[in-house]
Design goal:
Two copies of one chain form a homodimer. Chain A is an alpha/beta fold. Chain A has five helices and 15 strands.
Chain lengths: 223, 223
């Protein structure tokens, strides 16, 4: 441990003592707001479809039935079947609006059942990922690529980013106050004008942490 | 933050600076060895059987085929089918030797598929847990209770406990150096003369952390 490291640690301790004395929320040595909580949402397996693939499967564009937490995003009335080399999953949710290319988001557990070696990726980053077959009652589409395990992330507005002491593309550690408490590391911060504050985890992360819809997260470190 | 808390934090910082200057491994404020690594093993779904249930299912006692990491424990040749109200799982491993009562260890994901509301419990703590039906080619057994999601834990010898600065029944936070890095909190320490050093996690914890057999853990805090 060098002098700089010692200075940083002691500096953090002293900063927090001073914050406490002034009655402010504690700020970590890294300048993070580690007190305010973030809603945690579980993204169950779902599909995003291109317009062409939606028409191929259903004969028409997607039909919105429910708004999601991020503005403009919706759950569609339509459902699809995923057909992998080892397994099949029925009644899989489709989210809209349509994107430039179709994408399938599953958990590692799902991927194993389907027989698809899906990597952990951020949404949209599908180059070189495995494909899969999508089917409806009336159509079938073969995706060349697009199956991913969605990497955990936090949506937030610029105002929230300023409040938490983070910036777009930061990676942070987030503590979940759940039944099987964990700190998830390398959580990507995504800042956008239209984003509502929400952390998204996948079903494996939800099951392993004992997640329920009341669970919240706190940023506890920067990676 | 009171004076005592400030003293504790500064005390920890000073202790570590002194350890570093003396060339020793860092010891946390809580007196933990946070440097040495612990092998992490994934416990896939499995069943422990009482002698009576083994005989009911197979007509004889269990047949060992492979030693497990904890001395005396083995994987049996025999396999069972789990039959829950919503789903069935075939070819489930049976571990020996036989215990006083049968117990089924599944993940939350499995429990959902089977339709059984299994709580997170330590092995052996099955009072009030749901039952399930076990079947073989030749027999069937209905368990009144015994289905649990095994709570993560670390087996270690008294010498390891001394080395890590922990005691039996302590709960600690363990950082996994995996592809999706996490810190699992409230991990139970189980100290026994016959225990080999190994942390056991369940398949949901394995999938959500990107576990593989090379992954190790470090104790990073006491809960």
């Amino acid at each position: 441990m060098n002098e700089k490291a010692i200075e940083e640690i002691l500096g953090g301790v002293i900063r927090n003592v001073l914050s406490e004395l002034k009655g402010q929320s504690p700020v970590s040595a890294a300048g993070l707001n580690t007190t305010d909580s973030i809603p945690v949402e579980l993204s169950a397996r779902h599909v995003h479809l291109s317009e062409a693939d939606a028409v191929e499967l259903f004969g028409h564009a997607l039909t919105p039935v429910r708004e999601l937490s991020q503005p403009g995003q919706f759950l569609a009335k339509e459902r699809v079947r995923l057909i992998g080399p080892k397994g099949v999953m029925d009644n899989v949710a489709v989210l809209g609006p349509s994107r430039d290319s179709s994408q399938v988001e599953v958990s590692k557990t799902d991927a194993r059942i389907l027989g698809v070696d899906a990597p952990v990726r951020q949404s949209g980053d599908v180059a070189g990922t495995p494909g899969i077959i999508l089917a409806s009652q009336t159509g079938i589409v073969g995706l060349e690529e697009g199956v991913i395990v969605a990497s955990r992330h936090i949506h937030m507005s610029p105002a929230d980013a300023s409040r938490f002491g983070v910036a777009d593309s930061d990676k942070v550690s987030v503590h979940l106050d759940s039944d099987r408490p964990v700190t998830l590391e390398e959580v990507l911060v995504r800042v956008g004008d239209s984003f509502n504050l929400a952390m998204h985890i996948d079903p494996d992360e939800g099951n392993s942490s004992g997640w329920n819809s009341q669970v919240t997260g706190r940023i506890v470190g920067r990676n």
